């Protein structure tokens, strides 16, 4: 008995300490969870006012942040990315997209800086197309052709925005309902575009749309990049890679002729990375028609749903941009129509070729070209497209 009692007491004490230890471990786990939550809360999505439309509609700005310092500003007018910071190889963050500081400058007219484009990104010949035997007439806002959704495309409407932090990163959902007949297009189209900024310095853009009547849809994002951070300087020293063995030559109105032309032996060969300026002024009929690069490349098939479509590298700063998509084409535009009349955020003006675009999309004029992949969307179907812009240094 005299030996058993201490053993029992010792066992009881062990049990008590064990329970206390479990409670302490649970408390530490809760503390770690709280730390993660607090860490996430250190980068809340900021929502601020960005001005007011002529009809009194308020425009909001959402600032998405990740835990490594990247920030992306998006406004509800046009779903426009107005600012996007990225580090150079020294870790210095700078804005890498062209745009403006206030709403009035966007309303005064601009070349689609940072905007969501729809219903149809790129050009439609003659401003019309036929569907099920009916011809639909659209605005001819680019010479004789229709461009980027018309006089008031998705780049010029106010979207509804809802922001939230998720396990994947900072998320902004933008929604817009395009009425039947808007800009000449058939069907009521409900659109959702989701921007997700991850801690891997990826901006993941997902597009969805449904319609109540057969229509055509081709959505894209129209950011102008200048990875140097010096937004008023030309981008001719940037090196571009395009995962494409063919491109679509165009006519004088920049409408595809229907030919799929091989890039090999031409200035359009970016299958090996080369600077934008290396051959942009070469004697070439297609370069003359576009004033430089303003063409759609036919992306090579990849084993992954989200294949590498393109990359851009600025050797001096080391900034490296990769573009992944499930779209069949990419429009590489070298900023040929920038003319120095628009003010730059970093001082000076946006001179010719001070920004480049990599617009993932279906081919231009697809509604009129039966040999191109279809852009038709029917009721009970869901349009789905995805593009990831990933930034790093090398």
Question: What do you see in this structure?
Answer:
The protein has 394 residues and is mainly beta. The protein is 12% helix and 35% strand. It folds into two domains: 1-37; 46-393, Beta-galactosidase, Chain A, domain 5 (Distorted Sandwich). The strands form seven sheets. The protein has a nine-stranded antiparallel sheet with strand order 11-12-13-14-27-23-22-17-20, with no helix packed on it. Strands 1-2-3-4-5 form a five-stranded antiparallel sheet, with no helix packed on it. A five-stranded antiparallel sheet has the order 19-18-21-24-25, with no helix packed on it. A hairpin with a 2-residue loop joins strand 8 and strand 9. The chain is globular.
Keywords:
disordered N terminus, mainly beta, 394 residues, Beta-galactosidase, Chain A, domain 5
What is the N-to-C order of secondary-structure elements (H for helix, E for strand)?
A: HEEEEEHEEEEEEEEEEEEEEEHEEEEEEE
Query: Which secondary-structure class do the elements indicate?
Result: mainly beta
Approximate helicity band: 10-25%
Main β-sheet description = 9 strands, antiparallel
Rg value: 26 Å
The CATH class name of the largest domain reads Mainly Beta
